[in-house]
Every structure is written in structure tokens, then in C-alpha cells.
Recover the amino acids of this structure.
């Protein structure tokens, strides 16, 4: 596999090889795979991408609340992982490193105020989410509307959190990372993470209490 | 068992309990406690409700062409001139580099150097000034003594 020049045929072949490799070694450590990427084994990069693509995109989606931007940022995350393969050292868990990069990019994007520019597609995403719900469970119109309202409120409440608190909640609630991993991703102490999380949950509990 | 919320990290323990992060023994202790403590029970219930609410937030599927776009970017980057690739590695590092850390060290070093220069310079230049001051004083005293001598009745004699 050569990720540098993928033709449609080679991509299919590569994907099949990657899936086969995943089946052969489902529990292979991420750091081990990354070390192989460092040694020039690009199939291992495909495996890592296969494993972490969705978690990273979903984390970024919840951070920036825009699908196009979240995918753009996720591409940048994996691009940076690939770019730094030569100097990679497994000093921490691979996921910690990965989410450190993702958090850094998301916080920068939020800080730079690029959110306003990409706001148009937010409602589009919302409809997309609802459509999926409709297909999955076939709810009534009333249930659809209720879901839309709930979703909007949840997104609004999370959006209002300070960006570091938001990142901590996303990593804790949805990615189920340990405190030590969140601390490394946010470049702060574990006690600071606990404090961030507690304040964030307290705020969310009070903002979303009426939905209970 | 004393109320969990009275402990320093009490509320955090309850959040951990809700997320299933506590050990089995500790979780059982908390369970027994919240059965009797209405305050903790309320907090646990509201936290669980919050988690259920957050669970409702589904995320869209990743685009099918995500990998293709990524590999195209990798290919594009690899075909870029070497200097450009190095510039990217330096200015777009994978993990954030705390640029303020070396900057703070440099600032402290500069400050120490500056203070050292300021403290040292007057010490060197103070001595001649002091000596000059002493010389002036001696001259003044001498002339004052001469004046006194001229004015004194004995000198007229």
C-alpha cells in the first residue's frame, strides 16, 4: 500500500488488506502499530485510521458542532500523526497523544473565532441527525420535534461551556478517557481536570434540569 | 458512613460513581450511603439524568471519502519540496509545543543579566564619585580652616 499515490484499485486492495490485518490482530497495541508506521509500514497507518477515525471525528464534531469543519480538523490530526511518524516515541498512550492533537486543533479553531464562519451548516447537521433517528426508530412527528428541541438544547448548553470544560466533558463522557489522559491532552493536572469536569457538569445539570 | 459531599472530593466521587469509574467495593459503599442520604441521592439522580440527556446527542457518520481525501493530502504533502515539508514539521507540530516555556527561561535569563549589569555598573562608577566627593570635602575643609586662620585674632598678630 502506498498512501502517497492511491489509485482506486490499490485503495480497494489496501482496504481489504487492512480489514484482514485487523481481523488477524484485533488487539494489537496502537503504539506498536505506530512504531511500525515509523519503520515504513503504511498498512499499520491504515489500521490506526480504521480504529480511530470515528472517535476523532465525533469528538471534533461535538467540539466545533459542524460536520465539515470536524472532518477537516480530523484530517489535519491524522496528517500530523503521519507527518511525525519518524520521530514518534511511545511515551504515553497513543489515544492520549491523538486526542492531545485533536484538542489542540479544536481549541485553536474555537479561539480563532472561525466558528462563526462555518455556522451555516449547523442546522443542516441537525436535520441530518434527525433524519437518521427517523430512519432508525420511525418516531412520530411529535417525537421528531421533541428530539430536535432536546438536541438543540443539549448543543446549546455545551456550546456555552468554556472551551476547556467542553473538551474535558467530551473526552470524559463520550470518549471515556481516564483523568490522566484528559490531563495530558489538556496540558494540565489531574486535579485541574476533575475541577473542570465538576464545574462543567454542575453548569450542564442546571442548564438542562428542565429537560428531565 | 459520613456524607460523601462533605469530603473534599465528594462531588467528584459521585460523578465517578455515576460514570461507573469506581471500584466495586467503593461503588457498593456509595450505594449504601445514597440509600440514606437524600442530598447525595438527588445529586446522583440529576447527574444520571444529565448523562441520559447527553446520550441523546447522536453524531453523523463520517463521510465515505474521508480516507481518500486524507491520502490525497498525504500524497500532496509528500510531493512538496523538502524545505516545505520541514517547515510544516517545525511550525505545525503534531502535539502542541509550549512556546512560552523557553520564552520564560530566556526572559528570566535576560532579566538576571540586566539586573546584574545595573547593580554592577554603579558599584564601579560609584567609587571615583565617592573619592571625588571626599576630595572636594577635604579641599573645602582646608579652605575653611585657612579662612578661619585669617580671621582669627592670632593670625593678625
Amino acid at each position: 500500500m502506498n498512501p502517497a499515490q492511491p489509485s482506486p484499485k490499490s485503495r480497494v486492495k489496501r482496504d481489504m488488506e487492512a480489514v484482514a490485518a485487523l481481523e488477524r490482530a484485533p488487539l494489537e497495541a496502537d503504539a506498536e502499530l505506530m512504531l511500525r508506521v515509523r519503520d515504513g509500514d503504511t498498512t499499520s497507518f491504515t489500521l490506526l485510521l480504521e480504529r480511530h477515525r470515528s472517535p476523532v471525528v465525533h469528538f471534533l464534531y461535538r467540539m466545533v458542532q459542524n460536520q465539515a469543519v470536524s472532518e477537516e480538523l480530523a484530517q489535519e490530526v491524522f496528517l500530523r500523526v503521519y507527518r511525525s511518524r519518524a520521530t514518534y516515541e511511545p511515551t504515553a498512550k497513543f489515544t492520549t497523544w491523538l486526542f492531545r492533537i485533536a484538542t489542540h486543533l479544536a481549541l485553536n479553531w474555537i479561539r480563532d473565532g472561525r466558528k462563526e464562519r462555518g455556522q451555516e451548516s449547523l442546522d443542516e447537521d441537525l436535520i441530518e441527525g434527525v433524519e437518521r433517528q427517523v430512519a432508525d426508530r420511525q418516531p412520530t412527528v411529535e417525537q421528531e420535534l421533541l428530539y430536535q428541541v432536546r438536541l438543540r438544547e443539549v448543543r446549546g448548553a455545551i456550546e456555552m461551556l468554556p472551551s476547556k470544560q467542553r473538551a474535558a466533558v467530551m473526552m470524559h463522557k463520550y470518549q471515556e478517557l481516564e483523568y490522566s489522559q484528559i490531563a495530558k491532552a489538556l496540558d494540565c493536572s489531574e486535579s485541574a481536570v476533575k475541577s473542570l469536569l465538576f464545574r462543567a457538569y454542575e453548569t450542564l445539570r442546571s442548564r438542562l434540569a428542565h429537560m428531565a | 458512613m459520613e456524607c460523601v459531599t462533605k469530603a473534599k472530593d465528594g462531588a467528584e466521587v459521585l460523578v465517578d460513581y455515576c460514570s461507573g469509574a469506581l471500584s466495586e467495593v467503593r461503588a457498593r459503599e456509595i450505594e449504601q450511603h445514597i440509600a440514606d442520604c437524600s442530598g447525595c441521592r438527588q445529586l446522583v439522580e440529576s447527574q444520571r439524568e444529565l448523562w441520559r440527556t447527553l446520550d441523546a446527542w447522536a453524531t453523523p457518520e463520517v463521510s465515505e471519502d474521508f480516507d481518500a481525501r486524507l491520502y490525497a493530502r498525504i500524497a500532496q504533502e509528500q510531493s512538496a519540496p523538502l524545505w516545505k515539508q520541514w517547515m510544516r514539521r517545525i511550525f505545525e507540530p503534531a502535539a502542541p509545543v509550549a512556546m512560552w516555556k523557553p520564552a520564560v527561561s530566556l526572559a528570566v535569563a535576560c532579566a538576571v543579566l540586566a539586573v546584574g549589569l545595573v547593580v554592577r555598573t554603579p558599584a564601579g562608577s560609584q567609587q571615583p564619585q565617592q573619592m571625588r566627593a571626599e576630595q572636594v570635602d577635604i579641599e573645602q575643609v582646608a579652605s575653611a580652616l585657612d579662612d578661619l586662620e585669617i580671621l582669627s585674632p592670632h593670625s593678625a598678630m
Remarks:
- The mean pLDDT of chain B is 78.
- The helical segments of chain B are 10-18, 24-36, 38-55, 66-78, 82-91, 100-151, 153-156.
- Chain B touches chain A through 41 residues (CB under 8 Å).
